[in-house]
Amino acid sequence: MEYVTAAVPDPRSEAAPARSGRRSLAVALLCGALGAAVALLATRQRWAEGTAAVAGGAFPLTARGSEVTGVPAALAIVGLAALVAVFAVRRAGRYLVATLLALSGAGTVAAALLGASDGSALDEKAAQTSGDTAATAAALSHTGWPYVAAAGGALILLAGLLALRYGHLWPAMSGRYERSGAPRSRAPRPVDPDRPEDLWKALDRGEDPTGT
Length: 212
Fold this sequence. Notes:
mainly alpha
């Protein structure tokens, strides 16, 4: 007589994807939230400095990141919203949101690096200060904050890449409905024979209030 042995799955092989999902989820949340915060903070700092010629003297000018370009801050907010939305969708929707998260990070990096050498904001301030529309800023210099914003965008990009790779292992927000989409049924309350309203409600439901 031949005996057929059934293959028993290795618990370690089943637990490995779960551990990878938890680790990637924690890293993605940390990178996405930290990256958005860093990018938003960096856009509020001075990105460029210079001077304008006013009445024979040099008037100091400064431009914050939000004045140079508003793209990094806007994309950081979009990335933060996408990071939250990843847990509200499933399957193809999660893939699309994860793609949006990654693109937000890449766009933040690109916009911050382009703004690192942009002097148009200071030129506009120089023209307004001197009253000469053709005036430009002199002694133009840039700070390191655009690169800090780019680093924040890189963290958002990393969160998006993790969501694309491991997002199918992450949990989704629980709702009031089962997998089939039908609302969960509630167990009927026990009928109190001393309460006439309970008796009438039981009769409306087609139940026998006497329990016989």
